[in-house]
Specification:
Protein name: DUF4395 domain-containing protein
InterPro entries: DUF4395
Structural class: mainly alpha
Pfam family, one: DUF4395
Order of helices and strands: HEHHEEHHHEHHHHHH
Oligomer: single chain
Number of strands: 4
Number of helices: 12
Keywords: Membrane, Transmembrane, Transmembrane helix
Length: 248
């Protein structure tokens, strides 16, 4: 437990090429999976749900019919308004979690990293380089920022207008609804594959960019070398050689 609080999910935080325990990464993805699930239901309700609130108790028969002999009722109906304060704070927390996992220092402020490291401490660690995961979490951060813009178009428009002198509308949502709707389901799928299958889509994209010579990648095979075990075996070999030389 002391090592967990000291190193979290890192093999050694002072290494030049940082490696993290992939078992803890998968556990953390499972802990954060509730966020895209919650956002997917929110977006579904906002996009496909009714935009009107009708009080059925105030329906009044007008004693009139339409051309198809359907009875016409008069009802009190108001335009439905949405308050995305809770969703905005959830998205800010998700963005914090994505950014926190990218660096050693900020990882110590993440509750999910600590919980995942504790839960994974009883299993044999599987070391993976941090760089591909950092790229994957950068993709996740981009998805979250897009959703933040969708839920707060007036605030974002005011910021952009004040900074650049533009005239973005502040009275309606200028972002098409299908953009965050697709991204939240993509994010949900990526996190599910990370949690259940251990398949990191962002890491695979990173590997593809490495193959195209766009990015560099640390040697993962080199990162799995157990240097402590090698040192122990060398010490044992030197000790045997010294004993053999003493016998002669």
């Amino acid at each position: 437990m002391f090592n967990v609080f000291k190193n979290l999910w890192f093999r050694n935080p002072r290494e030049q090429d940082i490696f993290i325990n992939d078992i803890a990464v998968r556990i953390r993805a499972g802990l954060l999976l509730f966020i895209p699930i919650y956002m997917s239901f929110t977006l579904y309700d906002a996009v496909f749900g009714t935009h009107w609130v009708v009080d059925g108790n105030t329906a009044v028969d007008t004693y009139d019919t339409d051309w198809d002999d359907n009875i016409i009722y008069a009802v009190n109906a108001i335009k439905r308004t949405y308050d995305y304060t809770v969703q905005t704070w959830v998205l800010w927390y998700a963005l914090f979690e994505m950014i926190a996992g990218m660096f050693v220092f900020t990882s110590r402020f993440s509750p999910t990293i600590l919980i995942a490291s504790i839960l994974a401490s009883k299993q044999e660690p599987k070391w993976k380089p941090l760089v591909p995961k950092r790229f994957a979490w950068s993709l996740g951060s981009t998805f979250i920022i897009v959703c933040l813009v969708f839920f707060n178009p007036d605030v974002v428009a005011e910021w952009i207008n004040s900074l650049f002198g533009t005239n973005l509308p502040t009275t309606f949502n200028y972002m098409p609804y299908w953009i965050p709707l697709i991204l939240v389901w993509v994010c949900l799928g990526f996190m599910w594959m990370e949690t259940v299958l251990g398949f990191c889509v962002g890491c695979k994209i990173h590997s593809l960019l490495v193959m195209m010579k766009v990015l560099d990648e640390p040697c993962e095979a080199c990162g799995n070398i157990d240097w402590d075990e090698i040192r122990r075996k060398n010490e044992e070999r030197l000790k045997r050689e010294a004993e053999a030389a003493g016998n002669h």
